[in-house]
Amino acid sequence: MTLPRTPSFRLDGKRALVAGASSGIGLAAAVALAEAGAEVVLVARRAEALADLVAQMRGEGWQAEALALDITDLAATEDAVARRGPFDVLVNSAGLARHGPALETAEADYDAVTDLNVKAAYFLTRNVARALAAAGKPGSLMNISSQMAHVGGIDRAVYCATKHAVEGFTKSMAIEWGRKGIRVNTICPTFIRTPLGEQTLAIPERRAWIEEKIKLGRVGEVEDVMGAVVFLASEASGLITGSSLLIDGGWTAD
Q1: Fold classified for 15-253
Q2: Is 122 marked active-site?
Q3: Catalytic pick among 159, 177, 191, 251
């Protein structure tokens, strides 16, 4: 008999777009994809930070370039993707949180969070898929969601609402584009030690709540997400679409 062989996790020859790439999970995703052989375009608003990161990545011998862009500018984002695409891989890690009691939610905060976490994410994913479809190419598109897309959380009504929405449009897009070979999934981390995450982790009672809920007894590091990004980008996950990959230390196991 012929023994099966594990599909490759390598991404040589693939082009990847990573939004929110100047720090945290987005930066880690960009590094992971570049390490696996992809040519990576790093997207964020901070041009200087991106230039420094690209220089470091190129110093490692990886393929990387910067694109300073605010993805809430839908017209500019659509134009950039059309000009630079098609991209075989998308990781959208751009996100915003303004936590507070639901009774005190300000309309401006609601709009800012939903504009980035839902509207910009939706159209970025649509734009990358549109270019792939026009080129007749398959692809793997990922939105960095959250364990909070599957549960509720203290002072997180708006944030949870946006991440539940991301899960919904991801599933619908996966259904629509499956026959085109375009896979769409989410990655749902627990609390990760990033500049954004540290805002919550610095509050003792919140940290105690988090550590009690995470069954493995620790908060996440960006490295905990990197393997998942490469897996979903690669042929090793070729039959996975419309799914949520939970990296939550068992939080949602209850």
Answers
A1: Rossmann fold (3.40.50)
A2: no
A3: 159
